Amino acid sequence: MTSQKRRTATGRFPWDRGLIPTSVGVRVALAVNLLVIVVGIGFLIFAYLSETRQRLADKSLSLREQAMTLHQAVSLVDRKSVADQQRVIDAVCGRMSDEESPGHHIVVEIAGTALQSQAHHRDSDDQLRAIRSSDEHAGIGDGGLLVGKHSEGGVTVYVGEQMANVKAAIRRQALLRSVGVVAFGLLLAVAINLVIHRLVHKPLRGLVKTIDGIAAGNYGAAAGQFKGAELARLAAAVDSMSGSLAQAGKRRKLALDRARRVQANLLPPNGMGGGLDVAYFHRTAEEVGGDFLDVFQTQAGTTVLCVADVVGHGIAPAMIAAMLKVLLLDAAEVHGDPGDMLRQLNRRFTAVNLPEDFATVFLAVWTPATRTLRYVSAGHEPALLLSNDSAVRLSSTGAMMGIDPAMAWETQSVQIGPGAFLACWTDGITEAWGTTDEQFSRDRLISLVKHGVGAGPRGVADEVEKAVKEHAGERPLADDCTFVAVRFA
What we know:
- It is a single chain.
- It contains eleven helices and 15 strands.
- The protein is α+β, with helices and mostly antiparallel strands.
- The chain has two domains: 25-168, Beta-Lactamase (2-Layer Sandwich), CATH 3.30.450; 267-488, 4-Layer Sandwich (Phosphatase 2c, domain 1).
- It has a five-stranded antiparallel sheet with strand order 2-1-5-4-3.
- Helix 2 packs antiparallel against helix 5 (163-215) and helix 7 (315-334) crosses helix 8 (338-352).
- The chain is rod-shaped.
């Protein structure tokens, strides 16, 4: 297996491995929805990062402006009065809202003395060291501090704010934005999916339905009209194909009807003379079949009975079966012994047929003057001879026909008493499958024949045909079925 075949077998995507539906409409919708999700997530991440940078820059500027304003207020107070300085710092800090400046803190240094705001009880040595350690960012706690500083005239003012609190506010804003983006994305996805359904999925589903109908035999079905150029061309191609198949189907039906009539014309009539009462039924798995049946009288006053089963069913076996009739009539004009007839039949059959063509044959010659039945069987189902409350199976006397042109079969002979009954058939009956997944079986067929002898050949043939139909039910025949019943007068 090549590497390309391995990639195809394993699949790079879930739909290549059969994990999700593989229709074009579904795959296009998945691809578009995935793109919308990726773009939406990318937008949220970009917006969050951009806003974080902008908000931190704005907050840093705001803290510097607050430091400058507080510096002016502190500079107007007597520097020697520490209490007055402390009151100013606490008053300013008290007016700062925790919503607008969460976790804020103020430190003022005057002549080496550091004063911290006490309004919100955040004053501590750690806060003092952290806020004095950097002009912009100072490391304290998990999030650090954002610091604004202004120094002039021996007075330095620090205004700090917890970085974590600033980022928490940004995240709350981002969450609200995310809700809006998700809602917009859902509306956009619904709109896109509706468009894809209308422009891609629905038309393709209609085309697939039309093609499925054509595949089921609805030749001539039309795909309809489509707005898209590609779909319109595809629909036109489907309509053209459907029309061509409809015409071909009509021609095929006419040809098969004629072939069926020809094959039916090759069958012998029911109720032969010459001391024989013959009845049969013949059913094919398709329009025509490969089972062959013939009963005819020769100029010598004998009656030839032949039942053959060509391998397979359909047109090719039906052609071979028709050819067998011609070859059999030719052989019967030359030979009176069934073994000699079958040898000539086999030579001609092997000479003109393909290597894979074979046939089983039961061939018998009835001589009413001596009440003798001579027969040969080339791999065929055993015939059943009922006479004087005895049942004898006329088994195969050699291999099937078509294997070796020099093959020979030894003729067997039996004496026939008055009222004797002969039944022979093809394996399409004994091997017919039923609704319970069981074959009809040879034993069941023999039992039907034995119990129905009193009804005569026609009654037995009708009973067997009815039983096979009931056994198969709605299940189609897997092979051709032929049954022949003969009463010897």
